[in-house]
Amino acid sequence: MSEKKTRILVVEDEDLLLELLTKTLQTSGYEVLTAKNGVDALELAIENEVDLILLDVMMPRMNGFTFCEEVRKLSDVPIIMLTALNRPDDVARGLQLGADEYITKPFSFRELNVRIQSILRRVSWNKGPNNFSVLSIDDIVLNVIDEKVTVRNQEVELTPMEYKLLHYLMMRPTSRSIMIRCCEMCGSMKEAKALRLFSRWSGGCALKLRTNPQIPNMLFPYGV
């Protein structure tokens, strides 16, 4: 079986730079997802497992600062900001919002690649044993380390977002704020769209786990 490639999300509204970044990263062996604005990028970040984000700041629909703030509500995925904004206040703002690196344009691709490798190594080193490595509710078992879900010892295939939702629910099976949190996960997307996404994710999870009629009612108690 081939080794899973590191997946990088590139968010950049300049077509030429986006193309150059994509080709350079692919040549270096990375899998690349792309977006030209913050709204589309947020959807990609929510629906896909990404290992690192390269983020422009000055973009349409949602700027990089707002995007970074929204992503940090959901994930600690490493973020490198790539921007022409080089004032100390801008750098400080980006780092305070959760960016791991702040690189000003123009930059060399060699420097960028070194920064990416350094961050990925650091993230790998910092991954220690999880205090909740295995979660279980009745017949459902979620292995956090392997990211596998089984129901009555049979593995169940979930999408990345379904897995995140299930993990969240199993950590908080009695929470009364599930809908609110999942809408927060959708960031600044319109409320109606957020609710449709929540319905799709939770409905998909419930159907795949419905080997015992009581299980979906416990994890999805709001009419899913």
In summary, what is this structure?
With 224 residues, this protein is of the alpha/beta class. Helices cover 46% and strands 17% of the residues.
**Major sheet: arrangement of strands:** 2-1-3-4-5
Distance between the termini: 37 Å
CATH homologous superfamily of the largest domain?
Answer: Response regulator
Characterize the biggest β-sheet.
5 strands, parallel
Which residues sit in consecutive blocks of at least 5 with pLDDT less than 50? 128-132, 173-180, 183-192, 212-218, 220-224
Please indicate the count of domains: 2
Task: Classify the helix fraction into a percent range.
Answer: 40-55%
H-E order: EHEHEHEHEHEEEEHHHH
Taken from the alpha-carbon principal axes, the silhouette is: elongated
CATH class of the largest domain: Alpha Beta
Report the C-alpha radius of gyration, rounded: 19 Å
The name CATH uses for the topology of the largest domain is Rossmann fold
Task: Name the CATH architecture of the largest domain.
Answer: 3-Layer(aba) Sandwich
The secondary-structure class comes to alpha/beta
Q: Averaged pLDDT, please?
A: 75
Notes on the structure:
With 224 residues, the chain is an alpha/beta fold. Helix content is 46%, strand content 17%. The protein contains 9 helices and 9 strands. The chain has helices at residues 15-27, 38-47, 64-72, 88-96, 109-126, 160-171, 178-185, 191-209, 214-219, and strands at residues 7-11, 31-35, 52-56, 79-83, 101-104, 134-137, 140-143, 148-151, 154-156. The chain has a 5-stranded parallel sheet with strand order 2-1-3-4-5, sandwiched between helices. A 4-stranded antiparallel sheet has the order 6-7-8-9, covered by helices on one side. Helix 6 (160-171) crosses helix 8 (191-209). It starts with 6 loop residues before the first strand and ends in a 5-residue tail after the last helix. Mean pLDDT is 75; it is low at 128-132, 173-180, 183-192, 212-218 and 220-224.
